[in-house]
Amino acid sequence: MFPKGLVDANTAMNAAFAMVWGEILGDPRHSIAFKALGYGGKAKELLGVLEETPDDPRSDRTVIGGWAKALGLGGCFHFQTHQFS
User: Fold this and answer.
1) Distance CA 60, CA 73 (A)
2) Which parts of the chain register pLDDT below 50?
3) Per-residue confidence (pLDDT) for residue 76, from 0 to 100
């Protein structure tokens, strides 16, 4: 009973996860169901954001923002910097 857009965003992220692990394990069968349901293209788009972003914790906001934009969730969150004492 969730909105379709939210389910689609979640499923696209799951598809990206399955594609990565399918590649790591050398077994593309992990992503077959997601591709059959039409999430392969969006998963590749999400993985493209990862490939274009430096592998550094300082880039986490860039990845999150890029994925949110790709999934149509760009206006659903904001970042706030916390200072630790």
Assistant:
1) 16
2) none
3) 86
